[in-house]
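Lab notebook, bench 4. The sequencing result for the construct came back, and we need a structural model before the next group meeting so we can plan mutations. Quick request posted to the team channel:

Model the 3D structure of this chain.
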Amino acid sequence: MNVILKQDMPKLGHKDDIVHVKDGYARNYLIPKGLAINATAQAKKVHEEILRQRAHKEVQLKKEALKMAEEMKGLFLSIGAKTSTKGKIFGSVNTIQIAEALKDKGFDIERKYITIKGDLIKEIGSYSATVRLHKEVLIDIPFDIVSE
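Done. Here's the predicted structure in token form:
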């Protein structure tokens, strides 16, 4: 039976993929849980139209992300943290502080789109973070941790 997935399913497919699964798996699990719909001719037509409209929106979102990436080029952040006399940070610096520093610079980015390279930041120094503006647009932001 062919079904259209409504969300990403590990080892099965991504959202909006049309996949072939066993009849019982589709009828007893995927469709009742709302994870997929039956891929009838009418459902396929509706699905194609939705994909066409989404593709147009994706182009616009990617253009906006590229524009923001150009604005963020050369951006450097300085984040203050309470430290000991030897340079150890009390606690750690995480994506929340980076998102707040970006907001202070005029870029409102959610913390779930920020990834810090390496392990937890526990000492003052220079580090780098990756900001995902779009699924295809990533930008590296260097930042320093300084003692307050």
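The chain is about 35% helix and 30% strand.
Will bring this to the meeting.
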